[in-house]
Amino acid sequence: MISIKTKVMISKRNSLVILISILVLLFTYIGINQLIFREDFELNLLNSPLLPIPETGIFLLSWFIPILELLAIFLLLWSRTYLLGLYLGIFLFIMYTSYSLGILYFASYIPCSCGGMLKFLSWKQQLWVSLGGLMIAILTFYFNKTVKKV
Amino acid sequence: MKSKFLIPVLAMIFATGMSFTTAELGKEQAVDYIRVDNQWMAIPEIDCGQVGPYNCRAKLQDGSVHPIYDIQNLSSLKKSTSTVPFPL
């Protein structure tokens, strides 16, 4: 007979796996798309009213962000490093959310969202996706704290 | 513990496939350009209809209106029969 406590633990562990899978899915899709359309992404960063940095800096940033996302995936996939991946994921989603908020409410003009996180979404939709991702990452962190290693 | 990471790996494989599939679709979409604050800004290609006497223009979400260019060149202005700007 499995005790209720064990059942709750298994259910929490399964939730943790599902949440990590969602994060991996999001980062893989965003990261690979940004690499495939890296030139569009670079152009979008160049046009950004929030990033007054030289072109070389923008060029490096357009490589650095997707690489950081791919790094988060690989960290999330290994049991020894997934906590580190989770921290990186939370950091990335905080950055996306802040950037989308900045573009929507503080920028002098709203640029095209065609080279952003998900190019087919508007800035408002990107804000909701990044907020959703942040909630998932925080929830994963919470489950990670409560789940005992079986 | 190791089996815990099978589903995330499957999710990664699925997302990789999905990225390349949607990227293939995305490649077909060309881009146009507008000038904002003396800088080129890429926008999704706008179908300006038949060539007419007016400049084809795009309206950004902040309400500003800008002429549309085919490439990053000021002489590549797109023309239209309509004076109404296309919302982005």
Task: Write up this protein.
- The complex is a heterodimer of chains A (150) and B (88).
- Chain A has one domain.
- Chain A contains five helices and no strands.
- The longest helix of chain A has 33 residues.
- The radius of gyration of chain A is 18 Å and the shape is elongated.
- In chain A, 39% of the residues are buried.
- The model of chain A has no long low-confidence stretch (mean pLDDT 85).
- In chain B, strand 1 and strand 2 form a beta hairpin.
- Chain B contains one helix and seven strands.
- The model of chain B has no long low-confidence stretch (mean pLDDT 80).
- At the A-B interface, helix 1, helix 2 and helix 3 of A face helix 1 and strand 2 of B.
Condensed summary:
In chain A, 75% of the residues lie in helices and 0% in strands. Chain A is mainly α. Chain A has one domain (4-149).
How would a textbook summarize the main sheet of chain B? Answer: 5 strands, mixed
pLDDT < 50 runs, ≥5 residues of chain A: none
Outline of chain B: elongated
Strand content of chain A: under 5%
Share of β-strand residues of chain B: 25-35%
State the share of residues found in helices of chain B, binned by percent: 25-40%
Number of domains of chain A: 1
Q: End-to-end distance of chain A, in Å?
A: 17 Å
pLDDT < 50 stretches of chain B: none
Question: How many β-strand runs of chain A?
Answer: 0
Tally of individual helices of chain A: 5
Alpha-carbon Rg of chain B, integer = 20 Å
**Class inferred from helices and paired strands of chain A:** mainly alpha
> Structural class of the secondary elements of chain B?
alpha+beta
Give me the oligomer status: heterodimer
What is Rg of chain A?
18 Å
How many strands appear in the DSSP assignment of chain B? 7
Largest beta-sheet characterization of chain A: none
